[in-house]
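Fold this sequence, please.
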Amino acid sequence: MELKLKLAKNNVALLGGLLIKGGTLRSWARAMQALGLTPEQHPLYVLPGTTANSDWGCLIAVRKEELPKEIGSYAYCQLVDDLLFIPTYTDLFPEIIAGELKRALLNTPHLLHPEIGLVKLDTPVNWADCLSVGAPQKKLIFPSPNPMSIPNRVRSFRIEALSPEELLNRLDQQIGSDEDLPEHRPLNMMEKAKLKLLQQFFSDDARGENGERPAEKLDAIRKMFGGVDDDWLERLEKEYNDLEERNKKEVERLLDMLKKDPKKGLQYAIPLDDKGTGRGFSGGFGGFTLSKRWGNFSLGRQGGGGFGGGGGVDLGNDFYRIREQYMKTAEELIRNGDFREAAFVYLKLLKNYRLAAETLERGGLYTEAASIYLKHLDDKRMAANCYEKANNLMEAIDLYKELKMFEKAGDLFLQLDNKEAAFLHYEMVVENYLGNFQYLKAGSLVKYKMDDLLRARDLFHQGWIENVDIYNCLNNYFNTFKEAEDFRLALRAIVKNENLTKKQYEVLVTALQVEFTKREESVASEIRDIAYAIISKQAKVNPQLIQNLRAFNPNDLELRRDLIIRKGGY
């Protein structure tokens, strides 16, 4: 029995080993170490070459569940009946029945490979015989005069981004095939006549309601163009398809490619813009000719693979059809997760820089998106946001500083564990707030980001004193006192001020209602007494304050009734 290999669409057996072509015993040992394989559990067999005293490479037997997922340039192999190793995506010919392989191979492992044939794997490498340990060498070790201490923990890390120009020029990804389309020869008169006749039988319009071709024309087609061979109909249909393809306009060919194979179609696409290209602006090219223009999806250079020169391309009304197909192609690429390719369509073909950047951002390609925001849109805010998402914090900080968004810059400096720089930028924000009398914002930043409670307390109190957003400032001022005694002293100091305005008294009573509900009973009792005193003192000039008494006596029904009667005017 002669065993042969044939190609298969899928593997027919479980994976059971790795093939390494070329190399030496030393390189194989390093490969095993890099792949996490051990000599004890994974035997290695040297494979002979096709010439005397040469090695083709090696095979490492590995159970399927122990196979590494990343194997670099090495190759997996299948294991048939736990006995015969064969390359992936191949099958045995003729088909082997159960037990026949063991009898044929004498129950000994073998490898069947198209380059070296059938190889018996009877003796794996004995690593103990291959390794030698030399005598230990004496080395003098001198301690460093200034030893470097190893930190106990990593406080921060950052990723440095390339410049926008450099990054965009490095975003090259090979696409499709390097083969150009076949030469597009226009049909001559005879070919056009033949195509017209064949269309009556092979075209979609010629099919009946059930999708079948017209039987009454079959015999005529056979007599006119057929032959005596059995496959004349299949041959004739292929010729029809070739004639149809050659009969298409260049624009139709491009649109078909974009629909059937977007990535390949993009290699032949032409940029569209609002400056003449693609709108019939005459300048040197004349009609549109289908040829490869892009060798890669470079988002940096304006040319992608040989397309250059001046002038325009006369597309006429086809401009809008191509533009619509470009949009559909980009949307399809996005649905398939090909965000970089979709961005290529927007950036290079449609010149829609905003959509290109947004597409890259949507696909998580934040650094690339930031480069387009900067280079083509001058949108520093969006670029900084993308750099921040990409953890390119220093690049984001530089942009935030240009935008005078110093609080954002301070936040990112804190992420880098640079507290000094963060506080320096926070201080710039605080000074700006104070220059605009925004004591609440200044105090909140100092309290929550600079962790300076005493200074924040002073800022909130200053807002209260100067009648700026007094309710929020007073409320936040009270919240800085956690201890009961400290709160008592602060409240007494405020009430002691005889120069409070009518509005301040109203706000103070309202704020005391909040404190009354959340402070402990002993403090709440004093708050009630102070509120009574304020309301009593202000009742003549501000009678509406009397209604606040019930907030300090929620269970006093008599007081509630009296206040209702007073409010009603009885």
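The longest strand covers residues 15-21. The radius of gyration is 41 Å.
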